[in-house]
Every structure is written in structure tokens, then in C-alpha cells.
Amino acid sequence: xxxxxxxxxGVVRARRPPGKRPRxxxxxxxxDAGDVENLEHQYGSDPDxxxxxxxxxxxxxxxxxxxAKDYIGRVQQQQQAAAGDYDAEQIDRDLxxxxxxxxxxxxxxxxxxxIAAHFAYAIDEALATRVLxxxxxxxxxxxxxxxxxxxxxxxxxxxxxxxxxxxSGQRLAVFRSARKKRPDHDAGHCDEIxxxxxxxxxxxxxxxxxxxxxxxxxxxxxxxxxxxxQHKDAVTGLAxxxxxxxxxxxxxxxxxxxxxxxxxGYMDTLFGxxxxxxxxxxxxxxxxxxxxxxxxxVRMWKIADDSQLVFRGGAATDQHRITKSLAAPDADPELAExxxxxxxxxxxHHDELRALAAADAxxxxxxxxxxxxxxxxxxxxxxxxxxxxxxxxxxxxxxxxIHHLAHGVFPSPTDAAEQQQPPIPPRPxxxxxxxxxxxxxxxxxxxxxxxxxxxxxxSGKIPGFDLVNLIAVKxxxxxxxxxxxxxxxxxxxxxxxxxxxxxxQEPRLGRWNKMSARNVIKLYTLKALxxxxxx
Length: 535
Hints:
By secondary structure, this protein is of the alpha+beta class. It is built from eleven helices and 30 strands.
């Protein structure tokens, strides 16, 4: 029987060009054909080319390329006719080329987007702040924003997980703490919640607490999915790997564990820390960064290679280092001039450092590393009880840059009775929370000094970071989370951000201090202003 028995009489089957393979999926073929038809309908086609015999044999990819070239040529002709002159540099700096270059850098795991300068302006906190009340009875300890910036999750010392609507501030769901003696105690935490994380696809929420358990919740259905019991002490940190539903957890039992949330299964356990682990951070690679409390080490776990990099902490803040930091020039003096509040804060910080150096009263040594945030896959920052924020690189075992006393020191007592006692040595504000906008030059830090600070990474060969802005907040900031708002412009590299802060009367891991503040969740919506409007 002939091969072309299904063709009509007189119709000959067209031969495929050499080197072209047939499509294996009907859906792919239909989608390509639809894309070509849309391009041809939108931009048109050349009648001379359409009548050629070669077009009958061209593939959909070749046809898209031909239509794209025709479109670019017509746009150039329109610009020349409208302006009279043709600017070649304008095409070289096209938004599409810039966005493609940024995507290449992000896929390689290196930060490339410079967005911090768009937030160097005086913030109107009355308009930018939204306070979420009525969710927690005791101080909140952690907060997380979903990737689409629709919902905010918070956990507290009362053992409750609260779901908020970001735009309206409405409380959507509350998962109360469960009692240990009840048969359904596995459906919720029975002690303080210390960590919360949201998956990159926005489907799952993970919480960990002092009851040594990790609970998994569904974002869409607002229900409990499962619980993990493998940790032997309080769970202090959780982080999802971007692009997957793999969860990393750390605990006071000195172990890091890996979980597959799609299967609700346990994967692996990593050992290495000699003391309790306080925090963990991860991005898109199969690796995570953890900080040990008293062993003063930062460890990067390369899970695929079954290895780890150990970075030694213990940075000292003394008279010599303070004098050296004061002598170093600012990387961008014009950045501080844009915001009077930032300029005043930098001047007050320098005066404080000079007073400590003159009195030879500065002798702070890093004893406990409390928090960590990843800038990109090879760069991260840590905060400690000495008030120093350290910048690390995978190329060195020591910090490449240290910002001493980033949030200042506790003020001297003003009471006459206290002044008669032997003088109390100055105490720094320890860094209680860190977060970063992934793969950008912007990260945030917080303490109990009354301000959340925004920092900008320096460009060039000299590493470091500088203060960009401040947000006033009263109380212990136990948790920070930041998310970029979706933009209508697909090629836009600057977007508005939302900052969520868990503010309470007590610190996250203890009750050794108490402040006169409200136990609330605060949201700050910061607009990304153009560079021209900031000058």
C-alpha cells in the first residue's frame, strides 16, 4: 500500500528541509503556530517574502525571527522620521537588553540589580505604615510575606499562627496553640513559635517552635497538612529553597535537617556546629548558610557535594578598629545628603564612636551570632550581640567588611540614683533581625534602638555597605521580612517593596528585658522613586 494513501489525488507531500526534526508534541506545534500568527497579525509580513518559495519551507522559529527583524526595522524608520536623527546608543541601552543581562546574573546567583538608591528619601511613616493588631496576646517572634505579597504570616510566643491580608490588614485565619494532653495536639504548636517560612510558589507555610516540631500548612486551604518530630530541641530557623519545595531547618540541637514538603518526607541531617544554631538562610542553589550562637562560626552547607565551608566569627570592636572605621571615607556622600534624617543619624553615630574611642571604653567582642541573610549565592551578612554587621564572601574565611556598632549603644542612665553607682560600661544594641531583597544591593537590619535600617551594597572592588534610610519603630524587632510588589511593567527593574516587622515587648529567645511597646505586626510600603526625583 502506498505511503501517501491518505492524500487526495494530485496532492504531493512536502519534504522536510534537511537538518530539521519533526515536532514530537502536538501542543508545542499548535502553540508555535499560534505565536507566529499573533506576530504576523500584530506586525504584518512582507508581501514580497510571502510570495517566495522559501517561506513555505521555513520553520516557526525562522518565521518569528524574520517578523522580529521586520518590526525592529520599522520602529527604527519611525524614530528617524519623527526625530530626524538616529541615536544608536539608545538602542544599545534598550530595556530588553538590560533585563536579559540581569536575568543572566540572577541565574548565576550573583546580585546585579541596584535598587537601594530608589529608597533614599524621607519616608512619610504615617502613610507608609500599617499596624496589624489583635493577632497575638504575647510578643510576636517571626513574620513572613508570601511571594505574591498578598498575605502575611506571623507567629508568636502564644503559640498562634496568624494569617493577614496585606492590603486591607484584615485577620483572615488564626491557628491557635494546642494542648499537649489533647488527642489532636499534633494539629498545632503547643509552645512558642520561633520561625516561619513560605515556599517560593506560595503553596506552603512552615512553622517551627520551642516544642521541637515543624508544622506544614496550606496557604490556599488554610488547613494543617503535616508535622515533623525529628528535632530534639527548639526549632529556631526555617528556609525554603527558591524554585523548589525543599525546606531547611535548624535547631538548638545543633543539627540542620532537610525536608521534601511535596512528599511530606524527611531527606537528610547535617552535623557540624558545636553549639546551638540560631538562624538559617537559603536561595536557589542547593546550599544553606547557618550561624552558631556560641561557637561563633558561620557555616555554608553545600548539600550536593556533601561538604561545608566554615567561617570564623568573633570580630572585636575596640579603640583601634573604631578609629580606623572613622578614618575610612564614605563610598557615596551624595546618598546621605538626599535624606536629612540619614545624614543626622550618620553624624550622631560618628560622634558616638569618637566619644567611645576617646574614653577608651569600647571593648566589645562578638560572643554570639544571632541572625543571617543572603545577598546572593556567594555573599551574605550576619549580625551579632556586639552590634556589628559583618559582610562575608565565600572567597575568605574572615569578614570582608565590618560595620561596628551599627545600631549604636544603650544610652547612659539619666537617673541621679543610678549615676551614683559605679559607672556601667557601654552596651551595644545587638542585631536581632536581618533580611535582604534577594539578588539586589538592598538589605535591612533591626534591633531595639528604635529604627529599622536600610543598607546599600557598594559596587566596585572595595566591599562594604552604607546606610540608605531609616524606619522608626518602637520595641524589640524579633523578625523581618521583605518582598517586592508585582509590577505591571514586565521589563521594569525597580519595584516597590513591602517590609514586615514582628515588634514585641520582649526578645525572641528569652525574657531578660522588657520594653514599653505593643505586640503588633507592622507593614511598611516603600515606593521606588526614580533617580531624577531623588536628586
